[in-house]
């Protein structure tokens, strides 16, 4: 029975590590615990659309919540591993009152101290296998800290790329180039560069799905609000006479269609056309889609 309880704890730890792995290093369209938490917070925030400050905190708050969830599951899991073997398999420091506490509380305390790599030494594993497991928990705690820092450092460049594309599209919408103006070498380069940026954003939504739950602020920096204008530019490029401009227009249209597919598969689930997906994307972010 003791080993069965310990195996339940191991299962909790493995579930947290699996979710961490798939969130940070091998994201899938099916998501996991972290995606469920982020989606729930995002949907809850939709009821507070009038309060922009609340919506703007969803992304950072979701990341903090997910990291706290990972840490909590790992600490609880290892505590369950220790619990059936407490206190007989452990040595307590002389004068320590830890042995007088409930066994589950001692297990939680030891797990928390170990995962934080504090090494206070008032409770020390005595059995051989526990002396191996305890340092392993410290390594997991260090890995969790490192992964959290890496996650933060990776997500914000992805957000920057998305907002740069949005601002660029907003500026182009202000000048509103016609098909004739795009029907030149410069127009072809412009459309080609936009296609490249759209592809980068598409990759960011694949690799960093949590970026979807970050609010972009004003309309001119919100991709959800201006992505429709990129569709209009692609159509104008496809109507150009120059082969290079037409090719660039087709490239941009293909990149936008691919982006719409990723948004629909991972977040929106409309099953509609790219225009319908982008309209749903804009609505989900509290915006209205503009194409001209």
TrEMBL record:
<feature type="transmembrane region" description="Helical">
    <location>
        <begin position="138"/>
        <end position="159"/>
    </location>
</feature>
<keyword id="KW-1133">Transmembrane helix</keyword>
<keyword id="KW-0406">Ion transport</keyword>
<dbReference type="InterPro" id="IPR013099">
    <property type="entry name" value="K_chnl_dom"/>
</dbReference>
<keyword id="KW-0407">Ion channel</keyword>
<protein>
    <submittedName>
        <fullName>Potassium channel family protein</fullName>
    </submittedName>
</protein>
<feature type="domain" description="Potassium channel">
    <location>
        <begin position="83"/>
        <end position="153"/>
    </location>
</feature>
<feature type="transmembrane region" description="Helical">
    <location>
        <begin position="57"/>
        <end position="83"/>
    </location>
</feature>
<keyword id="KW-0472">Membrane</keyword>
<dbReference type="Pfam" id="PF07885">
    <property type="entry name" value="Ion_trans_2"/>
</dbReference>
<dbReference type="GO" id="GO:0034220">
    <property type="term" value="P:monoatomic ion transmembrane transport"/>
</dbReference>
<keyword id="KW-0812">Transmembrane</keyword>
<keyword id="KW-0813">Transport</keyword>
């Amino acid at each position: 029975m003791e080993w069965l309880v310990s195996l339940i704890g191991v299962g909790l730890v493995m579930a947290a590590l699996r979710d961490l792995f798939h969130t940070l290093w091998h994201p899938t369209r099916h998501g996991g615990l972290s995606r469920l938490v982020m989606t729930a917070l995002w949907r809850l925030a939709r009821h507070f659309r009038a309060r922009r400050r609340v919506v703007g905190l969803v992304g950072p708050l979701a990341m903090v919540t997910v990291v706290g969830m990972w840490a909590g599951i790992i600490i609880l899991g290892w505590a369950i591993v220790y619990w059936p073997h407490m206190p007989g398999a452990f040595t307590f420091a002389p004068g320590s009152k830890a042995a007088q506490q409930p066994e589950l509380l001692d297990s939680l305390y030891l797990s928390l101290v170990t995962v934080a790599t504090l090494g206070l030494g008032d409770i020390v594993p005595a059995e051989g296998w526990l002396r191996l497991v305890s340092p392993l928990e410290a390594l997991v705690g260090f890995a969790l800290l490192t992964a959290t820092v890496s996650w933060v450092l990776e997500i914000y460049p992805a957000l920057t790329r998305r907002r740069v594309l949005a601002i660029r599209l907003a500026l182009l919408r202000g000048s509103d180039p016609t098909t004739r103006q795009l029907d030149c070498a410069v127009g072809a380069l412009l459309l080609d560069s936009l296609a490249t940026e759209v592809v980068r954003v598409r990759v960011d939504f694949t690799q960093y799905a949590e970026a979807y739950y970050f609010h972009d602020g004003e309309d001119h920096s919100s991709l959800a609000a201006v992505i429709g204008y990129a569709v209009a530019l692609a159509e104008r490029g496809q109507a150009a006479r120059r082969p290079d401009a037409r090719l660039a227009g087709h490239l941009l249209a293909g990149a936008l269609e691919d982006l719409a597919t990723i948004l629909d598969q991972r977040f929106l689930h409309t099953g509609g056309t790219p225009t319908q997906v982008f309209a749903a994307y804009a609505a989900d972010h509290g915006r209205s889609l503009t194409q001209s």
